[in-house]
């Protein structure tokens, strides 16, 4: 058991609508989500004394503080590596609460990532690259420069080694779109897809088809981390942070770890998983729902393997068995995930884990004690186990 | 150390979308294991895209390639690309 995690809890969550064109500023989205989360926790906004986000968010802590009219802030941090930081924000907040650095820490992510600066387009290399950025020249000059293309390179090798097919990737999309179809907050509410529709969707970067790729979204989400002791006195059932970990492995690059002896797995996620099991004393059989980062379908399969839900190369059998459906052994992304609900860089998945533990999710999983949540894949990453207190 | 310019394809993608400045769609990007043990990324040049695109290209994995150095118009930049040793599929 890890003292810093078991002593902390998520006490409030807030979210804006998810859309393709929010019509308001990213700062407005952040403020809306944060005030929503504080209201949900039953705490006054001016009691916030910590603000945590991760990079690629344009709302830095000074502007959020100013817009909310906050006073003294004793803890602020911004974790690195894009979507890989999604669960790091809860880890950073839990550590700070445990250390006594702050009492009421808000973690947030808000952006107009469809109507503003789109994430799915090619990445413009820096105008004045440093030596550390020379890596761009290794792949960017050859047109390997979109998130989909970079993931596709690993996915193709994964298919070759393990016999996984485009249909196996498609099954992930079908499950998640089915879940989104019954979630009114999801962009793809009431829009399920069939495997045939997945197979007929156009190529983006082979082996990835359009329906293997998550959407680009506008929206904001926030959550409140405080001590478990304090959370017990607030209006919702506390959601305990049972484990929280970061992982970066040998040969790590950002979206381009192609120079390792093998590229079909996610060793950094394996590292995160080992820490989560060790901190919590839990095993895969203790988990009742999975919130796995799904910006592209192939990495959902490799995460199942890295985290120990099946052996290496066997995720395709797990997917085909129906275990990941809402009524299966390990329901995957009951809210619809980044593919179906919205791409709020993984943090909307943490909110879903909170709803599942509280027992008030729209696609509620029965008899739930623990949910495992992961952050971005293909980058230095992070993960959480949330549970009943 | 001088490199032989010989290797084999470890993985590849076919990029269809979005359009990228300087590239004609679709195009093939290969990850090549050089015989010297170094791995490099490059484009596959002079390849028959009809034999590769639309899910038909798994045969590329393991195929031998040799380096194809391509200069830009001004001649001040050289890209290391790759060509199949045996173009028959």
* Distinct helical segment count of chain A: 14
- Provide the residue-averaged pLDDT of chain B: 92
CATH-defined architecture of chain A: 3-Layer(aba) Sandwich
Shape of chain B: globular
Unreliable runs of chain B: none
Q: What string, H for helix and E for strand, traces the elements of chain A in order?
A: HEHEHEHEHHHHEEEHEHEHHHHEE
Radius of gyration of chain A: 19 Å
Q: Whole-Å distance between the termini of chain A?
A: 14 Å
- How many domains of chain A? The number is 1
Global geometry of chain A: globular
Beta strand count of chain B: 5
Largest sheet of chain A: 9 strands, mixed
Q: Major sheet of chain A: order of its strands?
A: 3-2-4-7-1-8-11-10-9
Helix and strand run of chain B: EEEEE
Walk me through this protein's architecture.
The complex is a heterodimer of chains A (389) and B (89). Helices cover 34% and strands 17% of the residues of chain A. The radius of gyration of chain A is 19 Å and the shape is globular. Chain A has a single domain (8-117, 214-388), classed as Thiolase/Chalcone synthase (Peroxisomal Thiolase, Chain A, domain 1), CATH 3.40.47. In chain A, the strands form 2 sheets. In chain A, strands 3-2-4-7-1-8-11-10-9 form a 9-stranded mixed sheet, with helices on both faces. In chain A, strands 5-6 form a two-stranded antiparallel sheet. Chain A is built from 14 helices and 11 strands. Chain A is of the alpha/beta class and 389 residues long. In chain A, a hairpin with a 6-residue loop joins strand 10 (370-374) and strand 11 (381-388). A 5-stranded antiparallel sheet of chain B has the order 3-2-1-4-5, with no helix packed on it. With 89 residues, chain B is mainly β. Helices cover 0% and strands 43% of the residues of chain B. Chain A binds chain B through residues 120-122, 138-139, 141-146, 149, 152-154, 156-157, 159-160, 166, 202-207, 258-259, 263, and chain B through 10-18, 20, 22-23, 26-27, 29, 31, 39-43, 53-55, 57-58, 61, 79, 81. Strand 5 of chain A pairs antiparallel with strand 1 of chain B.
């Amino acid at each position: 058991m890890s003292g810093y995690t078991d002593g902390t809890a998520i006490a409030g969550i807030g979210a804006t609508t998810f859309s393709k064109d929010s019509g308001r500023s990213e700062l407005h989205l952040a403020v809306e989500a944060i005030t929503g989360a504080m209201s949900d926790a039953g705490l006054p906004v001016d009691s916030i004394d910590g603000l945590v986000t991760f990079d690629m968010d344009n709302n830095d802590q000074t502007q959020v503080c100013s817009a909310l009219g906050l006073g003294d802030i004793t803890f602020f941090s911004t974790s690195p590596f894009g979507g890989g930081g999604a669960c790091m924000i809860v880890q950073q907040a839990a550590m700070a609460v445990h250390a006594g650095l702050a009492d009421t820490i808000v973690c947030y992510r808000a952006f107009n990532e469809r109507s503003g600066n789109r994430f799915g387009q090619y990445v413009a290399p820096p105008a004045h690259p440093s030596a550390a950025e020379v890596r761009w020249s290794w792949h960017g000059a050859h047109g390997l420069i979109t998130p989909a293309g970079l993931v596709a390179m690993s996915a193709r090798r994964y298919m070759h080694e393990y016999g996984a097919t485009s249909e196996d990737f498609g099954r992930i999309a079908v499950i998640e779109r089915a879940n989104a179809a019954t979630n009114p907050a999801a962009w793809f509410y009431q829009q399920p897809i069939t495997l045939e529709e997945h197979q007929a969707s156009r190529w983006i970067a082979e082996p990835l088809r359009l329906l293997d790729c998550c959407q680009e979204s506008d929206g904001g989400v926030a959550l409140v981390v405080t001590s478990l002791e304090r959370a017990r006195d607030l209006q919702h059932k506390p959601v305990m942070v049972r484990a929280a970990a970061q992982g970066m492995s040998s040969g790590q690059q950002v979206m381009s770890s192609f120079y390792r002896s093998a590229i079909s797995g996610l060793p950094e996620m394996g590292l995160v998983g080992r820490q989560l099991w060790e901190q919590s004393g839990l095993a895969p059989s203790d988990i009742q729902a999975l919130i796995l980062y799904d910006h592209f379908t192939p990495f959902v399969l490799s995460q199942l393997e890295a985290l120990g839900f099946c052996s290496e190369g066997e995720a395709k059998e797990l997917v085909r068995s129906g275990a990941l459906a809402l009524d299966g052994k390990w329901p995957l992304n009951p809210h619809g995930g980044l593919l179906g609900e919205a791409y709020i860089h993984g943090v909307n998945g943490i909110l879903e884990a909170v709803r599942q533990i509280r027992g008030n999710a729209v696609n509620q999983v029965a008899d739930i004690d623990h949910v495992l949540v992961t952050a971005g894949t293909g980058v230095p990453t992070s993960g959480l186990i949330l549970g009943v207190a | 150390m001088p490199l032989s310019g010989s290797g084999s394809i470890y993985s590849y993608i076919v990029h269809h979308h979005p359009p990228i400045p300087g590239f004609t769609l679709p195009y093939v990007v290969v990850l090549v294991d050089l015989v010297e043990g170094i791995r490099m990324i490059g484009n596959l040049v002079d390849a028959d895209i009809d034999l590769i695109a639309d899910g038909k290209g798994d045969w590329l994995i393991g195929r031998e390639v040799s380096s194809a150095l391509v200069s830009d118009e001004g001649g001040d930049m050289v890209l290391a690309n790759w060509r199949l040793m045996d173009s028959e599929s």
